[in-house]
Design a protein that fits this description.
The complex is a heterodimer. Chain A has two domains: 82 residues, no CATH class; 40 residues. Helices cover 76% and strands 0% of the residues of chain A. Chain A is mainly alpha-helical. Chain B is mainly alpha-helical. Chain B folds into two domains: 79 residues, no CATH class; 155 residues, no CATH class. In chain B, 78% of the residues lie in helices and 0% in strands. The longest helix of chain B has 32 residues. Chain B starts with a helix and ends with a helix. The relative contact order of chain B is 0.12. The model of chain B has no long low-confidence stretch (mean pLDDT 89). Classes of the chains: A mainly alpha, B mainly alpha. Chains A and B meet through helix 1, helix 2, helix 3, helix 4 and helix 5 of A and helix 2, helix 3, helix 4, helix 5 and helix 6 of B.
């Protein structure tokens, strides 16, 4: 049933965010540490369990696929609710700091990718 | 009649948001096909239009949530809020390859730490260049260059002034907006076309909304990999910026 997929997804998210909040409190920061990442890992693990009793049917899967497909529309809505006015009117310090951080980060992507491929990770 | 219409839209705000976003998407794909021959992806245009509407909405309402502060479009705020965003991000993990995640696991973790330190240092240097000299302000602006959550968390922890905290949030927002809009344009040049690089990209950029938007506009298949590392970034930033990185700045200034 579709709700099984949606329920599995929501369970993974709640468990992950809970773990992320606990982790944040444990290391003493006022933020969620990787909650969504933990939720993603949990979903991947649960949906790949080798057990035949826990195999997801195609209709159950469609409950997860729907939300996966809603991702881009949700991101468009997310863009439409950003505080763009504050970003633009923050003054040059904010704009230069943000832009420089983006440029530096993007420039490092190929460097780190190459460094990793040469290392023991492969 | 307009009263009835606005009441219906206000009472069904989330449902109205589906229509709004659907229409926006349709317009974007039409623009993409008609004017760019599909070269500029429809979702990239939709995100850019979304940001533009957020700007217009923010100006019109004077609020902080873009278009969502206009009562007629309040549902956009719910649909685009952190709850649905994170729910959809988790859903994209369904079908992600475990092997690809394992292969990039170590470099993904490294990229998060490198990304936080890099953004902080770049932001701090910019703050210095603009004449800020006290370690608390420099650190807060540096933290804001990480994400718009790390900035205020660091500023509050260190006791920075509210004007500096506001600047740090603006720096983080600028970063998120630029990552959303800029990623599809540089994706080819930085080799962002596989899960491995996407994980490193997510870790280096860190802003969840920026990475989410940037990858959606570049190649939606890469979303789970980039999002996976990006979600650790803010936590790591809140850990490092007010502690180690601040002490480092204080020792130097």
């Amino acid at each position: 049933m579709v709700i099984y997929g949606v329920a599995l997804l929501s369970f993974c998210m709640l468990a992950g965010v809970f773990a992320g909040d606990l982790l944040g409190e444990l290391i003493g920061v006022q933020a969620n540490v990787g909650g969504v990442g933990i939720a993603m890992l949990l979903l991947i693990v649960l949906s790949n369990l080798p057990s035949h009793r826990f195999r997801l049917g195609p209709i159950t899967e469609s409950g997860i696929h729907f939300w996966s497909a809603m991702y881009i529309p949700i991101v468009v809505a997310m863009a439409a609710r950003q505080n763009v006015v504050a970003a633009v009117s923050g003054g040059w310090v904010a704009i230069v700091a943000g832009a420089a951080a983006v440029a530096a980060g993007l420039a490092l992507v190929p460097l780190l990718a190459r460094a990793g491929k040469g290392g023991p990770a492969r | 009649m307009t009263d009835v219409l606005s009441r219906v839209l206000a009472e069904h705000s989330l449902i109205a948001a589906f229509t709004v976003v659907g229409a926006l998407t349709a317009v974007s794909y039409w623009i993409s096909g008609r004017f760019t021959g599909g070269r500029l992806h429809g979702s990239a245009i939709a995100i850019a239009l979304g940001l533009l509407l957020a700007y217009v909405g923010g100006l019109a309402s004077g609020g902080s949530a873009g278009l969502a502060d206009v009562p007629l479009f309040a549902g956009v705020g719910i649909l685009g809020g952190a709850m649905f965003r994170d729910f959809a991000i988790v859903a994209t993990a369904f079908g992600a390859e475990i092997e690809a995640l394992k292969k990039a696991g170590l470099m993904g973790a490294v990229s998060v730490v490198v990304g936080v330190v890099l953004s902080f240092v770049v932001g701090a240097v910019v703050a210095l260049a603009f004449g800020y000299t006290d370690p608390v302000s420099v650190s807060t602006i540096g933290a804001g260059a990480a994400t718009y959550i790390v900035g205020p968390v660091t500023g509050t922890a260190l006791g920075a002034g509210s004007d500096v905290v506001a600047l740090s949030i603006a720096a983080g927002l600028t970063k998120a907006v630029l990552v959303m809009v800029g990623t599809p344009f540089v994706a080819g040049r930085i080799g962002l076309d596989n899960p491995y690089t996407a994980m490193i990209y997510g870790g280096l950029m860190g802003t969840t909304s920026g990475v989410a938007g940037g990858l959606a506009a570049t190649d939606p298949r890469l979303v789970p990999y980039g999002a996976m590392t990006a979600t650790f970034y803010t936590g790591v930033g809140c850990l490092l910026a007010p502690s180690v990185l601040y002490l480092f700045v204080r020792a130097l200034l």
